[in-house]
Amino acid sequence: MSVHQAKRLINIDEYYRMAEVGILTESDNVELINGEIIYLSPIESKHAAMVNRLNKLLNKYLSEEAIISIQNPVKIDDLNVPEPDIALLKYAEGYYANKHPEPQEIYLVIEVSDTTVTYDKEIKLPIYASAGIPEFWLINIEKNEIEVHRMPGADLYKTISILRKGDLIYLPNSSVSFDVGILLGI
Question: Which backbone phi and psi does 108 adopt, to 5 degrees?
């Protein structure tokens, strides 16, 4: 006889209420994924360095046209509030002070993966694709490559390119391009 345990998923309002009353704190390092509170892996030095490098480059070339959001929440729907390593957002005068950015305000989401490749590909990528976020980059630190996913569909992206040092990568909604080696620091 099999036993089925029912889950009770939480929504975005309940998630933020938990923070308001102190059940969740900033030190908890969590995100809301598919209605569940997911604890994030500790950030290792290579991961942090990659995010810092990308932040500096993106701000250098796009600071007047977009907002570069670092490890901040984006509201996908009532059950999903991931915190991508980097989100390239449409410029908003108030810098999204009154609400988290939503899919139609996001040009690009970047996840830097060292120990989280499987989680980022199997859990987060389908969420971003189904929300219609136009472009997703998975930076695989161990392989020194960037997977560029474009043309979102139901739960995947229709085109995937694997780019390495020597390949050019183009920033969405921009004429800016980089050698992948510069982005990866190799």
Answer: -155, 140
